[in-house]
Amino acid sequence: MGKHRNIFRTFTTSALKARADIPAQADISEQTGYIDCSNIKMSAVKSILGATTNSLYELCRHANVNHWSTFGPTVRTYSNTGSFANAAMVNSDPAVAALGDFAGYDHVPYSTPGWYNTPSNPTDIWVNSGSKGELTADVYLGEIDYNVGDNGGVAFVLFDSYGTIQGWSLIDLDTVGDSANLSLETINNQVLEHTDWYAGVYITNDNTVVDPDDLEGTVQCRLPNTSTFGVHIHIKAASEWHYDGDAQNIPSPWVQNGSAGMNWNTGYFDIGSIAANQNYDNIKIYARLFDWTYTQVGSDGVIYDAAYSALDDITGSVILGSPPIASYGYHVHVYFEETS
User: Fold this and answer.
1) From residue 228, how far is each of 172, 213, 305 by CA, in Å?
2) Distance from C-alpha of 90 to C-alpha of 77, rounded to nearest angstrom
3) What is the value of pTM for the model shown?
4) pLDDT reading at 340 higher than 70
5) Is the pLDDT score of 154 beyond 90?
6) CA-to-CA distance for 3 and 39, rounded, in angstroms?
7) Three-state DSSP class for 216?
8) Distance between CA 309 and CA 279 in Å, rounded?
9) Domain range 114-236, CATH class
10) Between vectors from CA 283 to CA 281 and to CA 284, what angle results, nearest 5°?
11) Buried-most residue among 6, 76, 84, 322 (CB within 10 A)?
């Protein structure tokens, strides 16, 4: 009988075996709940590390040991537990050398902990006034065993500059493999902008917490190779339309004879009925729909593009977006351009 390596999280015995570089695959057998590793050779350890020493103690502490291997000669401890600010995992070399520590060692891990997609810093969240803000993050949990007990969790936390939790989510660590897609929403509906909030991902020893006030005491470490990032909450203004530069007042010399308006349910803007007391060789009237970041949505909606004779009525409508258009965050600008 060799060295046993138990399965954990969602990793199966076949997955742990396939990832192991030591011992040889023929010396790893799959058992119920664990893999059995036998015939672990120091020569194989020396070779995979590219080491020249024959000292087992030095091999266990060699600079080329990958501390993010599923298993290996790494001692993992947590510092400043129960604190979002400083909680960290510390990887250390073992005090006592043991060849069996290399059982199941994966020299080039399939994944290491860290961001799957690094969040922008700060990350902008746009919220309809009176609604909850939502935030997502993609992370690698890596293939290591965090050894935080049967109730280990992964917490995604949003907090303000005073450390007060403003949004959070908590999932069972045992349900996660190499990676996870995390999401949270704010605890309260948002009506004010905030530019001093932060978010981070943490490993906890309890996934049953239901009160955010109890969460910090369960934190073991920040997810390795990640850092907190800034979050800005922006409130979307009520959707509106206007003539470019002057609210809903039509630019001179044009006169509004019939009411103009934007139908947010249908996506149509109607110019109503307008006229001017002068001729134009060509006048172009068009509308654009912008979202909350003032990025144009769709193409220009051209209402009129031709020569114009004084006092003629111009009417017409154009569709600017797929209906219905949300009541927050959208802007319609109507432009008048004299062209040749």
Assistant:
1) 21, 19, 52
2) 5
3) 0.84
4) no
5) yes
6) 9
7) helix
8) 5
9) mainly beta
10) 150
11) 84
Does pLDDT of 80 surpass 80? no
| pLDDT at res. 248 | 83
Report whether 51 contacts 63 (CB < 8 A).
no
Confirm if 161 and 183 have CB atoms less than 8 A apart: no
The stretch 56-66 carries a mean pLDDT of 96
Identify whether 113 is preceded by a cis peptide bond (ω within 30 of 0): no
240-338: which CATH architecture? Sandwich (2.60)
Which residue did the predictor score with more confidence, 26 or 110? Answer: 26
Q: What local confidence, expressed as pLDDT, does residue 67 receive?
A: 96
How far from chain centre, in Å, is Cα 203?
A: 17
Nearest to 188 by CA among 174, 168, 202: 168
Residues 6+ apart with CB under 8 A from 340: 281, 282
CA distances from 181 to 115, 135, 153, 331 (A): 10, 11, 14, 32
**Cβ contact 333:290 at 8 Å:** yes
pLDDT at residue 84, rounded to an integer = 85
Confirm if 37 and 20 have CB atoms less than 8 A apart. Answer: yes
Tokens of 108: 């080039």
* Widest Cα–Cα separation across the chain: 99
**And the tokens for 258?**
């019939």
Note whether 114-236 and 240-338 share their fold: yes
Is 80 exceeded by the pLDDT of residue 339?
no
- Dihedral sign, Cα of residue 86, residue 91, residue 93, residue 97: positive
Give the mean pLDDT of the chain. Answer: 94
- The full set of domain ranges for the chain reads 3-102, 114-236, 240-338
Facing residues of 3 across strands? 37
* DSSP β-ladder status, 194-204 and 229-236: antiparallel
Tens digit of each residue's pLDDT (9 = 90 or more) over 115-129: 999 999 999 999 998
- The single-letter code of the amino acid at 11 is F
DSSP 144: S
Q: What percent of the chain has pLDDT over 70?
A: 99
Tell me what the mean pLDDT of segment 145-165 comes to: 95
Residue 171's DSSP bridge partners are 154
